[in-house]
Write a structure and sequence with these properties.
Length: 259
Amino acid sequence: MKDWVEDLDRLAELLALAGYMGKKACRRSRELVKEVRYDIAAFRQRDPAAKSDLEVLLLYSGLHARTAHRLSHALYQNGHTFAARAVSQGAKMLTGIEIHPGATIGRGLVIDHGSGVVIGETAEIGNNCTLYQGVTLGGTGKDEGKRHPTLGNNVMVGAGAKILGPMTIGDNAKIAAGAVVLDEIPADSTAVGIPAKVVRLAGERVANDLDQIHIPDPVNQELNALREALTALSAKVTKLEKAGKPAPRKKSAPKTKKN
Ligand SMILES: CC(C)(COP(=O)(O)OP(=O)(O)OC[C@H]1O[C@@H](n2cnc3c(N)ncnc32)[C@H](O)[C@@H]1OP(=O)(O)O)[C@@H](O)C(=O)NCCC(=O)NCCS
């Protein structure tokens, strides 16, 4: 891998020297190679199933979608919005991953498995983040302008999780598979559930009412309330009964004969 990347680097340099490529284009292509190489290393590091750099380069749809986004984003930034969209839709057809050309993405993004991932126009993703299949970084439909989430660095978003709205997900946060995030999530935390709640903060468990097993039984609660009402009622009846009855006569002491 190292060899052919260096070969590509050298080829770009030679093309520039021979006048087939401008110096700027040469610098850009070298930068691109460097960034793609960094992304490949990220996949190797975070996906134990990835067996070689070449396998990631040729067969990982997450890498293909991200690389296509580099092109579409450059076009978008230069005002070629139609061409940018065409590139992103082409990439979506090939990979099943839709990244809007306007999204801002840092280095080392790993989109594992890929299918069904949607990243909105104003989404921002920091460095070294990981997204699994079915993740949506979307809007709620209520906001204008910045309407998609911002992910810090080293954020992991589990399969099928939805992060909706222009909130921030702090550095090193983990969003559990299947969660729906509607609020800010602090750094170094784990958020789970719908709507997502923080269950771990800096490695410590956070007290939350997330117990889905020991939930109160409404029938039992109703029975207890009835039982209490019955006890109160019978106490009242006993009191009333006592009040209505004539007081029992006191037995007079036996008369003693006077001498
Ligand atoms: C959330 C996750 C990252 C674990 O993070 P963690 O900080 O190590 O948290 P823990 O495993 O200690 O779990 C914390 C609590 O959240 C619960 N939890 C974990 N994942 C959950 C989920 N997806 N949904 C609901 N609750 C979840 C745990 O049961 C635990 O509850 P408890 O404290 O009552 O025992 C992990 O469970 C997860 O969802 N990873 C996504 C991986 C993925 O999408 N893989 C796809 C591969 S194809």
